[in-house]
Write a structure and sequence with these properties.
The protein is mainly α. It folds into two domains: about 70 residues, Winged helix-like DNA-binding domain superfamily/Winged helix DNA-binding domain (Arc Repressor Mutant, subunit A, Orthogonal Bundle); about 60 residues. About 65% of the residues lie in helices and about 10% in strands. The protein has six helices and four strands; from the N terminus they run ααααββββαα. It has a two-stranded antiparallel ribbon with strand order 1-2. The longest helix has 28 residues. The chain starts with a helix and ends with a helix.
Amino acid sequence: MNSDDKSEDDILKGTTLRVYRFLFREGKPLSAREVQRGLGLSSPSVAEYHLKKLVQAGAVREVEEGFAVDRTVWRNMIRMRRTIIPLQAFYSVFFAAALCVMLLVFRNALAEGYLFGLLVITGALCLSLYQTARALRETI
């Protein structure tokens, strides 16, 4: 782990993390007042304090229109418009679809490998759902 990762972990907590997420989701430069209103912070100076912390960490840059996300610090996340989706969610969808195919299409083929296949796919689905929930908890 390099020093940048350590500083991100230290800085991206609490209100500073909320400010970063808000900027990331908006996808455009925002002023401190817009951040304060959007998050319901007590004053623009509180928003400014957290924005300056993000600028020092290199996650946000100050531009003419306000503050904009300079780089994405989410790991294993995909951004679709204003939504952040964990990469593991796609694995969950894949395994759920495979389980549905096994149950609906191959249900009459009770071969010796059928039950093993069901067991493996169900285990993989459970594991990927757990990882998705864990990734969501870390980002929210």
